[in-house]
Amino acid sequence: MSAVNVLVVEDEDAIREMLGLVLEQANFVVRAVADAHQAQAALSESQPDLILLDWMLPGLSGVEWARRLKKDRQYGDVPIIMITARGEEEDKIKGLEVGADDYVTKPFSPRELIARIKAVLRRSNKYGKSGRIEIGGIVLDVDEHRVSISDKHVVLSPTEYRLLEFFLTHPGKVYSRSQLLDQVWGRSSFIEERTVDVHIRRLRKVLAEHNREEFIQTVRGFGYRFSEQT
């Protein structure tokens, strides 16, 4: 298995050094920078497998840089874990809404951090699947990890991609939030059920740009269904 590259973006020197040490001890290849501008420069040199990004940064904030990054066709599928001192539910949801795949709240243990990183990396893998899935003009190429709708390339986050893949391979069936968490995020995930609603909303927004938002249907009192039939 090839080395996993992690880009750490943290403005506090002591925390940045600690994160680098913890990640290197876990056998990750680490590049650490102090702000979003340095991080953007690092991306242009080499694309990481995951970004560990502080919420509050000098100049361009981490949450705003994450928002821009997820809209970038070249880097939009790079997983992002936000580091935040904010514990309020609203702030956590905001981080997920801008495209972050997970978050850790300071203070956190090295063990928790590594567990979250590994969970996000597992969720972003292809799991050895191959082939092409197509429903209602939505085409998912598992081999190339690409999605297109009506022959137009669609940029999705790793979580949105996995969610769409699950829906496309299980059309017509109703799944509860807990079932979707198990199937898409994994049983060992730290994610709360409300996170499913956040990612469903983001995926619907992408599909709406191609007039396919009605494919994801809310089944009141239970969960969600993916179907061409309205």
From TrEMBL:
Cell compartment(s), UniProt: Cytoplasm
Pinpoint the Response regulatory domain residues.
Answer: 5-121
Query: Mind telling me which residue stretches traverse the membrane in this protein?
Result: none
Gene Ontology MF terms = DNA binding
Q: Which UniProt keywords apply?
A: Activator, Cytoplasm, DNA-binding, Phosphate transport, Phosphoprotein, Transcription, Transcription regulation, Transport, Two-component regulatory system
Main localization is: cytoplasm
Q: Which InterPro entries match?
A: CheY-like_superfamily, OmpR/PhoB-type_DNA-bd, Sig_transdc_resp-reg_C-effctor, Sig_transdc_resp-reg_PhoB, Sig_transdc_resp-reg_receiver, WalR-like, WH-like_DNA-bd_sf
Provide an example Pfam family for this protein: Response_reg
On whether Transport is a keyword of this UniProt record, the answer is yes
Q: Where is the OmpR/PhoB-type domain?
A: 130-228
* Record PTM 4-aspartylphosphate, positions in chain: D54
Q: Does the keyword DNA-binding apply?
A: yes
Feature: DNA-binding region: 130-228
Q: Which domain of life is it from?
A: Bacteria
Q: Where is the signal peptide?
A: none
Q: What does this protein do?
A: This protein is a positive regulator for the phosphate regulon. Transcription of this operon is positively regulated by PhoB and PhoR when phosphate is limited.
Cited NCBIfam families: PhoB
Q: Matching PANTHER family, A to Z?
A: PHOSPHATE REGULON TRANSCRIPTIONAL REGULATORY PROTEIN PHOB, REGULATOR OF RPOS
Question: What's the protein called, per UniProt?
Answer: Phosphate regulon transcriptional regulatory protein PhoB
